[in-house]
Amino acid sequence: MDKQSLLQRDLNHLIHPLHHRAGHENGHVWTRGEGIYLYDVDGKPYIDALSGLWNVVAGHGRQELAAAASAQMEQLAYCSGYTGSSNPLAIELGEQLAAITYPQINRFFFTSGGGEASDTCFKIARYFWKVLGKPEKTKVISRQWGYHGVTLAAMSATGIASYWPMFEPRVPGFVQIPSPYPYRYEAPPGQSQGEAAANELEQAILREGPETVAMFFAEPVQGAGGVIVPQDDYFPRIRAICDQYEVLLVADEVITGFGRTGKMFGLEHWGVQPDMIQFAKAITSGYFPLGGVGVSDRVAATFDGDDVWMHAYTYSAHPVGCAVALRNLQIIREEEFPAQAGTKGARFLENLRGSLSNHPHVGDVRGLGLMCAVEIVADRESKEEFPAAENIGARVHAAAQQRGLFSRMRGDVFCLAPPIVSSEEELDRIVEIIAASIADVL
Q: CA angle, 378 as apex, 377 and 381 as ends, to 5°?
């Protein structure tokens, strides 16, 4: 297969996510994956330093996941998940999730991915408050640099402004507050950074009117926005504010779920329980599109009345997806992914800091578990960013690709989330490549 011919055929017939023709003309055409490596059609291997899109936690080429999908396709490839129709795999997956998620979350609605899960969360929150006689509670508060998907409603919750202009106006009723962003958030004198950032939520609720706010939507660690790890006092204060003003706390665990941060789910780091969670990505290690929403017992009770809840997706509780998820959960348990991510991630972050923290253009090196970021700046003292026209991040990423590493940037922030099965030697190689690539460009 000739790479340039394939890329031309691609450009003739495909529209890509985040489509940009010039950016794709010299792109990759992946043909296989093995462990932490992706292989381009020209035969060159690349370290998959973002686990695909944060999701391939078990690595590429896991035969047991392929076998689970194949066996289920032969037995029952598809059936509806609508009321009056179920399958044993979905039932078992719900039971297993109830055993490993937050204690008060025991009921689940399945989707095809995170964007569908976000829209489901918005609708559940509205429905919940309507049942409780508070139909004005419809607004969603999220955060700058938060990523929750790009359906029209999910995009309106996503706090990365570059996703908005082509599709304005956004859906009404979505409000963003500042991220806790320890590297850049400025707290008022006398307040801890985490508490001050959390109090932004209280201020927003009071501005909008508590009687109008349905939910606060937050990733435990903001992923696509640049791996922003909150302060230890942030989420406990957030939980207290949500309780005070009767606002549902919804955790977007699409990236942080199933071990990535060193805990099975992200909010466990701070001892906080949400009212709802959403998940996707790592539940199947990306081998099948599957996501979902888990709700607390209090929220779940509203579904058991006489009304039909008018929300549905064709592929909810897909039997093949559930089979792959169940086999992947077995891998996560048996190979102790949370413990692996915690131990390997701490060493990985330490090595990144040791190799990069003295570089005059590395402003911050941060992370939790096996999700880390390196933030490149023009000036370390002022934290001033490079002008966008200099394309520093893209140039560093290009240098990394020349050395056989592929990931994604958020501007000049290099995001890293390698598969949890990565060896220490492979993680060390990632550090070497990042350091050399930054040195090349700067």
A: 85
SS3 content of the chain, % helix, strand, coil (to 5): 45, 15, 40
Distances (CA, A) of 306 to 120, 124, 130, 302, 375: 20, 16, 14, 10, 52
Q: Domain range for residue 74? A: 65-334
Question: How many angstroms separate the CA atoms of 369 and 260, rounded?
Answer: 6
Q: Say yes or no: 204 and 272 in one domain.
A: yes
Handedness of CA 44, 48, 53, 55 (dihedral sign): positive
Q: What is the pTM of this model?
A: 0.96
**Whether residue 52 is found in the same domain as residue 127:** no
Question: d(Cα 153, Cα 116) in Å, to the nearest integer?
Answer: 10
Structural domain total, the chain: 2
From 282, 314, 334, the end of a domain falls on: 334
d(CA 98, CA 92): 10
Residues 399, 263, single domain; the answer is no
Q: Which helix (H) or strand (E) holds 276?
A: strand 276-279
Decide if 359 contacts 126 (C-beta within 8 A): no
- Burial of 296 per CB tally in 10 Å (0-12, 13-18, 19+): buried
Average pLDDT, the chain: 97
Q: Last residue of a domain, which of 305, 334, 363?
A: 334
What count of residues does the chain have? 442
Give pLDDT tens digits for 36-81: 999 999 999 999 999 999 999 999 999 999 999 999 999 999 999 9
Residues 233-255: tens digit of each pLDDT: 999 999 999 999 999 999 999 99
Residue 23 has pLDDT above 90, yes or no: no
Same domain, 112 and 236: yes
Instruction: Give 46's strand partners.
Output: 38
Q: 362-408, pLDDT tens digit by residue? A: 999 999 999 999 999 999 999 999 999 999 999 999 999 999 999 99
DSSP state, 416? E
* 391 and 425 together in one domain: yes
Q: Is the Cβ–Cβ distance between 317 and 90 less than 8 Å?
A: yes
